[in-house]
């Protein structure tokens, strides 16, 4: 116990008589900033030094790597003319979605004992809904499956979607012939009917701005034409006929093989007589033949 007191007392005296041993301090009063697109974003940065009255101030943005925003008392090219700095606080004018990300304020006080301090500010630029792209076919056949698509890739936070038919909002229930995904923007039909024909449009919305809708598109539900029906029926009949013929051929071949096997078993084997021994000459052979006759 006495040893601990002996070590603590000199350390306390050193801290009281050596203020330069404390480091430069950097902080942000608002580490997370959310602003609407095309407005100004204020990224606060406050610092305190113990001795250095003219510290170096830098701002960097973390992306795939780290890029400079403010360096050597001036802004880099992408921020020049649309940003300003007061003390260490950075203001970016008319921000866009590309400006979203993590920014780091660095203060270097070379005369302080620990001469570097930093603070991080996250900027999120909110984007209102844009006019979504809507995929609605012009026509489909009765009984076909169908899927309509709606997408707004620019809104931040991501938009949610709602489908309208003939300017009436669609609501999914247990009895409806369709299903909807409000996050993905899909409208699915398992089997369309004549009742599903109409004008379809999609609306995207988030809590940043007013909803936006695509232009309504006409969806027609067609019956299969007579020639198509005949063609389908003919194709089905041909397949059935071909299948029946294959079965008949297989049965006939099977029966033919059975008969052939039975006939072979019932017929006695016939061995032809051996050929006559070769004669020495043609004359002797003819005489032998005449004698035999």
From TrEMBL:
Any single Pfam family the record assigns to this protein: V-set
Q: Does the keyword Signal apply?
A: yes
* InterPro entries membership: Ig-like_dom (IPR007110), Ig-like_dom_sf (IPR036179), Ig-like_fold (IPR013783), Ig_sub (IPR003599), Ig_sub2 (IPR003598), Ig_V-set (IPR013106), JAM2 (IPR042625)
Q: Could you state one GO cellular component term attached to this entry? A: tight junction
Annotated Ig-like domain ranges read 19-122, 129-222
What UniProt keywords apply to this chain's record, in alphabetical order?
Answer: Membrane, Signal, Transmembrane, Transmembrane helix
Signal sequence annotation: 1-23
Q: What are the BP-aspect GO terms?
A: leukocyte cell-cell adhesion
Spell out where the chain crosses the membrane.
228-252
The domain of life is Eukaryota
Spell out the residue ranges making up region: Disordered. 262-283
Q: What is this protein called?
A: Junctional adhesion molecule B-like
* Name of the coding gene: jam2b
